[in-house]
Amino acid sequence: MPLSAYLIMSAILFTIGSIGVLARRNPLIIFMSIELMLNAVNLAFVAFSSFLDSADGQMFVFIVLTVAAAEVVVGLAIIVSIFRTRRNIDVDEMNVLRG
Amino acid sequence: MTATQIAFFVLAVASTASAIGVIAFKNAVYSALSLILTLLFLAMFYLQLGAMFIAIVQILIYAGAIMVLFLFVVTMLAPEAGGTEEQDRMPWQRIVGSVLGLTLVGALSYLIFTGTIASGTKADPANSLSAMVAKQGDIQAFGLALFHGFLFPFEVTSLLIVVAILGALIFGRRA
Amino acid sequence: MTNLSFGVLILPLLGFLILGVLGRFMSRGAILAVAWGACGLAFVFAFLSFLSMIGTPVSGRVSDPTIYTWVVSGNLQISFGQLFDPLSATMLMIITGVGLLIHIYSAGYMEDDPGFWRFFAYMNFFIFAMVLLVTADNFLFLLVGWALVGLASFLLIGFWYQRRAAVAAAQKAFVINVIGDFGLMLAIFLIFINFGSLNYQDVFGKLSPSALGGPTATAITLLLFLACTAKSAQLPLYMWLPDAMEGPTPVSALIHAATMVTAGVYLVARANPLFELAPVALNVVAGIGGATALFAATIALFQLDIKRVLAYSTISQLGYMFMAEGVHNYTGGIFHLTTHAYFKALLFLGAGAVIHAMGGEQDMRKMGGLRQRMPITFWTFLIAALAISGIFPLSGFWSKDDILGSVLAQANATQNPWFYVLWGVGLLTAALTAFYMFRLFFGIFTGSYRGNVVTAHNEAEEEEEEEEGSGHHAGRVGYYDIYEAPAVMTVPLVILAVLSVIGGFVGSLALFGRPQWQPLANFLASVLAVKAPTISFALGWLSTGLSLALALGGIGVAWLLYRGGFQYKESRNPLYQLVFHKYYVDEILTAGLVNPLQALGRFASRFIEGSLLDGGSRGLAFLFRLSSTGLRRLQTGYMRNYALIILLGVVLIVIYYAVRG
Fold this sequence. Notes:
The complex is a heterotrimer. By secondary structure, chain A is mainly α.
């Protein structure tokens, strides 16, 4: 398969992820969409690594993976603590910083 | 149509369907399960591309650890959060988001097809991965690349993990 | 020759400064000492200088010391000097002499006024400004004096500044005068361009028909005459003088009869070398003079306020003076100026005595039968009325016939029918003058007293005047409350009456077989000698006889109509209404000039300043507020919106790269 096929695949997944971020109100699902976006990027990296015959792409994926894990941990902890305070995790309710 | 191509298309359709499932399900648990599926399909993509280690790591860590964590929180919060999807204050957001998304994918596709990204990629013979793999095998090649070229990011990543753990501990404490 | 004209200039100025600064703290006696002292000493100096001038031979009768060099800038050199020659000597005597008499009179007239010190300060200032005007030796200081007398007139007309009518009249006088000042300034510019200097001797010395083209001379002189029409209240800028009667009567006597309004006559006489080069301008001067004389006389026929009758009479007599100057008889104009100063000042002061006795009443309908109560005023007024009507042998006879004779001479010399018309106008005006003068005289002094007759008309007017809160209080004065004026007022009246009788004998006795007897003409010859046409003995007697007959006729008609007292009947005749309302000139000007200008001002204020300028800056502020309100809506607080915008940015970048290729 040519490189562009994988890149298109990556783009599609990225788009689906971003639509998810915009259209859902449950922060957990928003988070999952972000994970989807990250994974789409990972796919692009791996595709480049394969087609450029270089290890750098896979290294990047490794790092991204780790960072994603850390981010999920902290993010979920935040969501849980918000839930504890507000008993509601709808992101539209979190609009105190309105201008 | 070679087997590779068939496999690719099947995987493509499947992963797209499950990705849509992530964002479309009302029930958060279903969304999480769809995400696990998507991740698995992505791992298969990696396998097709020859990144063995990454594929395994993806399954182990993403699908195994991260998604389990997600499911924990989802099942803890989602039932109690109740009808969070009622009374959407900004229904237009979905439409605008979809339009924007379609624009994005269209532009990216245009770029990919007409740009020099896909066509102009040349392999760099000196740093050839396939050569290393052929000589020493997958894992070893990966390990060498990681600990020779990317040592510093590796160490920083471990620091990041420590920070994340600390953060989770602090947030996790009861008020 | 002793030239004390600098003293004549400085003394009133010092008087003004002292009274202006310290006047409010000074006692009546001190104020009068300063005011009378300044004016009196000025008169003494003027008189002494005059005597000295008579003693010097004719060629030495010009003294022009430069007192102060003011500006030396390239070609322009302006210095302040005082020209003392026969013309200015004559004017100085009149100004300070009549001025002194009026100062004395004012002590009595203004005795009740709280602004006593202010009045005398302004009067001294006026004397100073007028002296500056007539002794200036260059056109620039003439202009300075011109403007300053305008200022003095403004201050004095609006002396009772709490009265709206007075303030309005003062403004009107000033605004109309400024139009004249404009003409004078343009003339000065033209003179400077053509001669490089503004000094009289430089300008007049270089004059010849070749040095100055006809059109330029005409332009200069017409502009000068514009200034004269404003200052001397000729058509078309006469409207301010009747309104100026709002000022105290001594002011009207001094400024608006004897001296300031004669500044125009003086100017034409002074600039006679220029006028002689512009025959067109001279014709204009004569024509306007004649037209004004007749016009004002017709209005005076029907006026009811005694001061207004005298005001229009002044305008009319000034017309005579210009008529004389327009037919090359500058000496005649100056002669009539001097005799007019005597009898007009006398008329005004007499009217002032009546007004003072009547407690501020000026309406002729409320007077009558004052002969018995105010005998001195009666006799002096009679003398003045006879003088102005041109009855032999009083002063007015000599000066008026001088003028009419010279008009007839010009008519004969040029065979231009318009000059004959002008002569006819002069005769007719003489008749009208006699008539309205005696109408006034009979109205005030004969018949029975009408002041305590109550009619519906009177009631309404009295209420109106009490509301206004005037400087003079009109009320019903009982007949036996009226007393003759105090001595301080009647003595000047008597002196002026004597002058009105004998003042004419400095004129020409050519009609009586003594052509060599013309002392004034001889005196002024070095300044005003002009080739003027003359008439034969017979024609001179014709003119004189006719004017005398017409004057007597006018008096006779007035006697027939009014000897039993003045009966006022307002006629419904439209022609009467037209003249009674002074040809509606003021109304036309208000509608045509004043109202549009005020509307323009309101428009400018509301629209240009209000909407455009203020609105512009307010609009700018509004724009800012609008944009910030709009931009504020971006901060919704919803995370999803922010995410949307971020994505939008990303999409835009990608599109940019896609488009760029």
